[in-house]
Amino acid sequence: CEDKEDGTCRVTYKPTETGTYVINVRYNDQHVPGSPFTVKVLQPTGDLAGPFVEKITRPRHAASATSVGSSCELAIKLADTSPYDLVAHVIGPSGAVRHADIQETDNSRFAVRFVPTEMGVHTVEVKYRGRHVPSSPFQFTVGPIGEGGAGKVTAGGPGLERGEAGRPAEFSIWTREAGAGPLSVAVEGPAKTDIQYEDRRDGSCDVVYVPPVPGEYNISVKFNDQSIPGSPFRVYVAPPRADTFRQEAVSRTSRISSLQSTMRVGQPVSFAVQMSDSGSPDGLRATVVAPSGVEDPAVVSDYDPHTGSVGVRFTPRENGEHLVNVFHHGRPVPASPFRFIVRDVTSHGDDVSAYGDGLISGNTGVPSEFIVNTMNADPGTLAVTIDGPSKVTLDCEEIEEGYKLIYTPMAPGEYTVNVKYAGQNHINGSPFLVYVTGQNLSTRPGVKERGSASVVVETVVKTTTSTNYVSHSAVSRTDASKVVCRGAALRRGIVGKNSFTVNATDAGNAMLLVGVHGPTRPCEEVYWKHTGRNTYSVVYVVHERGEYSMVVKWGDQHVPGSPFHIEVP
Predict the structure, then answer these.
(1) Are 477 and 400 in contact (CB under 8 A)?
(2) Per-residue pLDDT tens for 120-158?
């Protein structure tokens, strides 16, 4: 930028690759008229003119039909991934949800296996650290495969999202549901690109291409001369760089996970990114995405030659899951994004709990409900937001112990229920993940779109009086079978704080006992709070992933469902 000393300045820049650039010009932190400006950088004309197109065509054969009771397998390829970070579910035609086994079969290859109990189209969801892997959810037909075609072909992988000049870019194509026909892949870019193809002979294939120069590439995938959904895929290939980040940086995730229970609102969070001896810290930047969706820059410290690392720091302003993205010259470093769970022990949300089947699962077209218990909580704003594959109808009713929320999902899939109290404070367990099954009843069943519904309530103080209590002296018998435990944390937990409720109103007078044992040792933190009328809010804190067993007793008797088996992915 050059000041012309006449009230103007000249800005020059040199693009290093083709593509669309966005230029922001601000004065006093405000955009000037016309800003942001869009500039398209093209390939030079003449002998260097492009684009160049390389294309291959391979035959695809119809997949063998499977049957009820047989072993079904879906193959996926995921680089730098541990099977312990993967979770798979299978949703049958009837809407029944079952877990599927995931096994590592080869380097970066995984097999999702399940045994179906019904005929028809199944939906297979595969998630990595709580997020769908590329092309998930998958369709898998048990029995005769119906009408196929290009619309039944899916493709996914890092090679359809980004690339680096001179390095292989990979992606996978699944044609099992499409039937037989020719499959063609074309790569169009500023230079000729070789394409390699490998048939996995299980209804999928792998494609590898090596872009020789940086720039914008278009990847076209066709089946029976028709484009598959999403094709053509636009890929931006970055300039080559040194092997800056050691692969050991992936293990950094476990060290970050061990700190999740200590994250607090308003307290700085920092971690280090390890770099190789030959790597350059230039071009390193980081952003943090808060639970509300707001993305802000994170602070990147100077390179420390003694430790060979660069520090990243941010200060969380709200409770919930934060994702920290770390980029080097526009490309994510290994293990990015890094996941942090932020909790505030002083939050008003700790006095509020939620429970009910509507926080666990549901069916399309059927009202789901859950209760938010605000007993003994100070007055505040209760905000409930539900995001998912369809917009839901959301109603709120005031009841004795708090508020009953009722919603009706219209499309199957995963919904996120956010329950906040007193501002941006998530209550214990929020956000809740709800799996909805059934037929798609939305007004646009053929269109994938997400919807959101919310309700905000100004709460009042709710206290119990003596007439609401059951006299302990008047109860002469204890019946643990009448104890009701509610909450998603009875089946699935997260690294950090988890909560559920125990209602023993009709169970007589006894002592509540709770014990949690993890994969290697007992849970270190388990505590509960009496919220009135023999109801309790129970909290347990875990520090490692794995399978947990939890015992809940009323007196010396197990309550219904105890011992509970909990999965912490």
Answers:
(1) no
(2) 888 898 888 777 888 888 889 998 887 788 888 999 888
Taking the C-alpha atoms of residue 311 and residue 361, their distance in angstroms, rounded to an integer, is: 41
Residue with tokens 């009841």: 399
Q: Which of 1-5, 190-194, 277-281, 500-504 has the lowest mean pLDDT?
A: 277-281
Report d(CA 446, CA 450) in Å as an integer.
13
| Ordered DSSP codes for 323-346 | EEEEEETTEEPTTPSEEEEE--TT
Distances from the Cα of 27 to the Cα of 2, 31, 34, 173, angstroms: 16, 6, 12, 48
What's the sign of the alpha-carbon dihedral 128, 130, 134, 137?
positive
- Give the pair of three-digit tokens for residue 147: 């009408």
One-letter amino acid for residue 246 of the chain? R
Please return the burial class of 221, using the count of CB atoms within 10 Å of its CB with bins 0-12, 13-18 and 19+. buried
Distance, in Å, from the CA atom of 483 to the CA atom of 534, rounded to the nearest integer, reads: 10
Per DSSP, helices labelled H in 26-122 are none
CA-nearest of 150, 224, 152, 146 to 181 is 224
Spell out where 69-150 has E strands.
72-77, 86-91, 97-106, 109-114, 120-128, 131-132, 138-142
Q: What is the pLDDT of residue 276?
A: 57
pLDDT on residue 354 = 82
How are the residues of the chain apportioned to helix, strand and coil, as percentages rounded to the nearest 5?
10, 50, 45
Give dist(CA 121, CA 95) in Å, integer.
11
Is the pTM higher than 0.70? The answer reads: no
Q: Determine how β-strand 86-91 pairs with β-strand 37-41.
A: unpaired
pLDDT at 338 over 80: no
Question: Strand pairing of 432-437 and 361-363?
Answer: parallel
55-114 tens-digit pLDDT: 999 998 888 888 998 989 888 888 777 777 788 889 888 888 888 888 888 777 888 999
Q: Is the pLDDT of residue 220 over 90?
A: yes
Q: What are phi and psi of 527, to 5 degrees?
A: -150, 160
